[in-house]
């Protein structure tokens, strides 16, 4: 402990106490419901209870630290740094596996201001390439023939995580539904938002607010957008910085800094299915702790073989192949923030697997074979901090007197007339330099462009997972190469200079039910700033203005979400 001239914050203590009370109430409510039902607790509720207990413990520690800072003028430095990466040849105790996961979650306070170093095929793997990001096993669903594994990045301060326990049971969610409702999903989605912001979930007294300027309508649109692209929408109170959003997306987690990537195939995962001579029941799934240990060791072993970042490797499922023989199939994937690098890693792993992995404790059980890999989009979670949807940055382009055209960064800016912008607070999300988001055409200011939300807008992968040639899907690849050379010979990301006749062509409407017999449809477009001199210009595939083609996803920064009624 070290002396400090500054004191703690009493407001934080009160907030921690309030959060502890709320979390305990949720745990008690779940327990009482199970007792009243008189049925055993299922796996889903057990997982929820475990997460609630972990949250209570963390909040209690944080409150204790803050109390010491307030009343003893002390700074508490807990020795909870992330442990050394796990090695596949180590023997792990069950308790150590659990503690390691908690330590990794608790140790993170702030993300590095510098981008992660890119793993290579020839250099030894750096164990510190992403000090504030660690893939963890968030959920394990064990079934007789297949076990599903959910691996997500643990980012920033996990003590402040707002868990979204999305339960299908109406008895314990505290929601009062309007009469005549048959589709409960929209109300559950808005209820999660209202609970996170301390608002009533009585929809009889307080109906869903429907309109272009309604944040609740936007939340429903984002939920629909996430579901279109096979993601779960999650709310959090983590202050996520966006300068590493693309890297987090390569680990499966999308935030408001990379949300536009859901509508593209720019972050593809090379998926493998390795056959292993391990017994599914006795060697792997005898307990959740064993599954977690196996998964983390498997990822570490693949990382060792490829000399790559362990966060590039994710396990998705573990399957029993036959009931009589010791055969198990592991479905996993490789993803990096650059497609070419992912393909390099996949090709190298394919070569290794042909002759087997005799030197790796876990991988030596892999049957040598000429494995194929398939390309898939495996972005699993859309995580949103509600405070980042900041009304002070809203703008109503529907009101009279708004000009059709302006300039940003020295480029024409065609305003999205007829739309309503829900602003994102990005003022401190990319470091301290805010010139890029300016409105005075200063050097370093970025121009405005628009991005649609329909996944098959320009690029796509075929249903069987085989990667088509870019020329078959990336419609302006050849034209881009003619403009800037081989630098453009990568998968392209497209934005439009116009919202109307441009990005709106590549949107899918979502429906909001306003009454038992009435509904309204809306569309979403992302308003972005884009880095100058990082794109090529094209007259199609848009009807108005230009399409700008990028190969660097970091050169596109969403700063608003546009909403319009059909």
Features:
566 residues, alpha+beta, Alpha-Beta Plaits, 3 domains, six-stranded antiparallel β-sheet, 11 helices
Fold and architecture overview:
Residues 113-129 have a biased composition (Low complexity). Residues 91-104 have a biased composition (Polar residues). Residues 85-129, 157-176 are annotated as: Disordered. Residues 161-174 have a biased composition (Acidic residues). The structure is a single chain. The protein has 566 residues and is an alpha+beta fold. The chain has three domains: 1-78, no CATH class; 96-114 and 124-155 and 268-376, 2-Layer Sandwich (Alpha-Beta Plaits), CATH 3.30.70; 390-565, no CATH class. The protein is built from eleven helices and 22 strands. It has helices at 10-37, 43-72, 94-107, 185-196, 215-228, 245-250, 280-284, 288-306, 339-355, 470-473, 477-484; strands spanning 2-3, 74-75, 133-142, 146-155, 232-236, 253-254, 269-276, 313-320, 328-334, 374-376, 381-385, 395-396, 405-408, 411-414, 420-423, 448-451, 493-496, 510-515, 518-530, 535-538, 547-550, 556-565. The strands form six sheets. A six-stranded antiparallel sheet has the order 3-4-8-9-7-10. Strands 12, 15, 16, 18, 19 and 22 form a six-stranded antiparallel sheet that branches. It has a three-stranded parallel sheet with strand order 5-11-6. Strand 13 and strand 14 form a beta hairpin. The longest helix is centred in the N-terminal third of the chain and has 30 residues, at 43-72. It starts with a strand and ends with a strand. Mean pLDDT is 80; it is low at 1-6, 78-131, 156-172, 457-465 and 467-472.
């Amino acid at each position: 402990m070290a002396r400090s001239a500054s004191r703690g914050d009493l407001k934080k203590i009160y907030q921690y106490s309030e959060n502890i009370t709320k979390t305990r109430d949720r745990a008690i409510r779940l327990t009482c419901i199970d007792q009243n039902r008189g049925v055993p607790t299922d796996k889903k509720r057990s997982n929820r209870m475990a997460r609630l207990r972990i949250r209570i413990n963390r909040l209690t520690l944080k409150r204790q630290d803050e109390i010491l800072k307030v009343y003893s003028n002390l700074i508490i430095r807990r020795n909870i740094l992330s442990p050394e990466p796990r090695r596949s040849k180590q023997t792990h105790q069950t308790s150590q596996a659990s503690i390691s996961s908690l330590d990794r979650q608790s140790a993170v306070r702030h993300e590095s201001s510098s981008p992660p170093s890119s793993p290579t095929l020839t250099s030894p793997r750096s164990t510190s390439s992403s000090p504030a990001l660690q893939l963890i096993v968030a959920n394990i669903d064990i079934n007789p023939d297949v076990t599903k594994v959910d691996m997500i990045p643990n980012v920033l301060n996990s003590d402040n995580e707002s868990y979204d326990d999305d339960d299908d049971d109406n008895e314990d969610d505290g929601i009062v539904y309007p009469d005549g409702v048959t589709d409960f999903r929209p109300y559950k989605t808005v209820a999660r938002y209202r609970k996170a912001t301390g608002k009533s979930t009585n929809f009889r007294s307080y109906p869903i607010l429907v309109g272009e300027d309604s944040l609740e309508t936007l939340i429903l649109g984002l939920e629909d957008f996430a579901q279109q692209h096979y993601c779960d929408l999650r709310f959090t109170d983590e202050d996520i910085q966006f300068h590493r959003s693309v890297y987090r997306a390569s680990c499966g987690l999308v935030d408001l800094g990379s949300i536009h990537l859901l509508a593209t195939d720019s972050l593809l995962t090379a998926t493998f299915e390795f056959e292993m001579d391990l017994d599914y029941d006795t060697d792997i799934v005898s307990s959740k702790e064993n599954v977690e240990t196996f998964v983390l060791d498997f990822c570490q072993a693949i990382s060792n073989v490829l000399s790559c970042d362990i966060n590039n490797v994710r396990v998705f499922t573990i399957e029993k192949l036959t009931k009589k023989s010791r055969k198990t199939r592991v479905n996993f994937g490789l993803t990096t923030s650059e497609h070419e690098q992912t393909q390099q890693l996949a090709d190298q792993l394919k070569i290794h697997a042909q002759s087997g992995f005799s030197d790796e404790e876990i991988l030596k059980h892999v049957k040598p074979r000429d494995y194929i890999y398939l390309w898939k989009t495996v972005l699993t979670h859309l995580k949103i901090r509600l405070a980042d949807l900041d009304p002070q940055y809203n703008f109503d382009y529907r009101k009279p007197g708004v000009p059709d055209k302006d300039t940003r960064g020295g480029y024409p800016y065609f305003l999205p007339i007829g739309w309503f912008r829900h602003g994102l607070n990005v003022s401190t999300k990319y470091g301290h330099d805010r010139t890029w988001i300016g409105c005075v055409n200063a050097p370093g200011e970025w121009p405005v462009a628009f991005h649609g939300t329909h996944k098959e807008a320009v690029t796509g992968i075929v249903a069987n997972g085989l990667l088509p040639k870019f020329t078959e899907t990336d419609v302006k690849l050849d034209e881009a190469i003619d403009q800037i050379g081989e630098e453009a010979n990568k998968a392209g990301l497209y934005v439009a200079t116009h919202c109307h006749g441009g990005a709106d062509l590549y949107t899918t409407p979502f429906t909001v039910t306003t009454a038992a017999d009435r509904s309204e449809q809306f569309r979403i477009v992302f308003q972005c700033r884009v880095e100058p001199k990082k794109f090529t210009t094209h007259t199609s595939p848009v009807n108005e203005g230009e399409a700008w083609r990028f190969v660097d996803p970091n050169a596109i920064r969403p700063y608003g979400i546009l909403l319009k009624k059909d």
